[in-house]
Amino acid sequence: MVNQDHPQYRAAYDLCDQQIYGPGFKIGDTVYTTKQDSFAQIRPLLGKPNKSRDELDTLRRWSDDIQPRFIKCLEDRGFVTVLAEN
């Protein structure tokens, strides 16, 4: 098992970030080109009780398309995501 700091994982992550998020993920009027910047906008929406249609659409596009493609990209490079338990 490796963590996010492992050099091979970091290289795969950066490649997938560039391939999946690099072309741009539009949230509101802004286009984000990294997973980190995109998720900084997504995270607050996840816990927001009353979401607008645009916010719901953004979450749907992220959860149904962008994020699964990112995870598959990592899996295609030999990495499987394991969620840590608290």
Protein architecture, described:
The chain has helices at residues 7-21, 35-47, 53-76; strands spanning 25-27, 30-32. It has 86 residues and is mostly helical. It has one domain. It has a two-stranded antiparallel sheet with strand order 1-2. A hairpin with a 2-residue loop joins strand 1 (25-27) and strand 2. Helix 1 (7-21) crosses helix 3. The longest helix is centred in the last third of the chain and has 24 residues, at 53-76. It starts with 6 loop residues before the first helix and ends in a 10-residue tail after the last helix. 13% of the residues are buried.
Oligomer: single chain
The major pleated sheet works out as: 2 strands, antiparallel
**Secondary-structure element order, N to C:** HEEHH
From the N-terminal CA to the C-terminal CA, the straight-line distance is: 18 Å
* Side-by-side strand order of the widest sheet: 1-2
CA-atom Rg in angstroms: 14 Å
> What's the helix count?
3
Pick out the low-confidence regions: none
Which percent band covers the strand fraction? Answer: 5-15%
Helical content band: 55-70%
